[in-house]
Specification:
about 270 residues, mainly beta, 2 domains, 4-stranded mixed sheet, 4-stranded antiparallel sheet
Length: about 270
């Protein structure tokens, strides 16, 4: 752990250096927005906000409208800086931006933009849980990371996709353990003609008991004896009292069956 004196020493070493760099103010974004049956959303207003705390886009940086194929685009904006603020021991992290439905209102998803001027490719998909319509947006990298495996039912076949809904407020766990609340869903996605016609056949929530405080977004899909499983890392409390020493890292494993079928495999490690 870095002591207070160490932090103060690093702060004193921080300085501006004459190193020109390009700072992203609005990322280049190209995306699609589709219904759960794979059809394009009708023309819909999409707003982008670049303040990580502005989850409902109350201070939008730009607004656009999807076209008839469900596609949308934001033109990026950058500013050239001639000085760079440098602090030893700290790396710049990708900034976070939000997409919202409408000029302000329902958050579609938080997304991490790169530090360069590269284009972010985004897939937004609607899904329904307990009668409520929801939307999740993944970058293409995230889509590849949290999709995989295969299932077959009659003539239908497809792959699995994990969904981590974004909370209205990020929880804080003593000890600095990060993650998202323990609500993770798996979808059975039926692949149609091309990537633009994927249909969500079923959605199920992965069961977790009340001791699970949060899960970490680094799930693994793997095949075991001809069946597909998903393994999550999670944080669990040992007793009813919540304090930093009471939190324990565990792995949760689930076996995935036909559309809608999921079961926990063994107790948490």
């Amino acid at each position: 752990m870095v002591s207070a004196y160490g932090v103060l020493a690093l702060a004193l070493l921080a300085c501006f250096l004459p190193i020109p760099h390009t700072e992203v103010q609005v990322p280049d974004v190209i995306g699609t927005y589709r219904h759960s049956d794979g059809t394009p959303m009708p023309p819909s207003e999409i707003t982008i906000a670049v303040d990580e705390d502005d989850q409902t886009c109350t201070q939008p940086r730009a607004t656009t409208v999807t076209d008839s194929s469900g596609r949308f685009q934001f033109q990026g904006a950058t500013i050239r800086r001639h000085w760079t603020f440098f602090t030893p021991g700290f790396d710049l992290a990708p900034f976070e931006y939000h997409l919202c439905g409408g000029s302000t209102g329902r958050t579609l998803s938080p997304l991490s933009g790169g530090l360069s001027t590269r284009v972010d490719s985004i897939d937004c998909f609607e899904w329904v849980w307990e009668g409520r319509s929801r939307t999740t947006c993944y970058s293409r990298d995230e889509m590849r990371r949290w999709s995989g495996g295969q299932w077959t039912e009659g003539d239908a076949k497809g792959h699995f996709r994990l969904v981590f809904p974004f909370p209205a407020r990020r929880p804080t766990i003593p000890g600095g353990l990060g993650g998202v609340p323990p609500h993770v869903f798996v979808q059975w996605v039926e692949q149609g003609d091309g990537d633009d016609h994927a249909v969500i056949r079923a959605t199920a929530e992965l069961p977790m008991d009340s001791t699970i405080l949060m899960v970490h977004r680094d799930a693994v899909l793997s095949e075991h004896d001809g069946r597909w499983r998903v393994t999550l890392r999670a944080t669990r409390r040992r007793t009813a009292t919540l304090w930093s020493g009471n939190a324990q890292r565990v792995e949760l494993t689930y076996e995935l069956g036909l559309p809608g079928q999921v079961r926990a495999v063994g107790p948490p490690a």
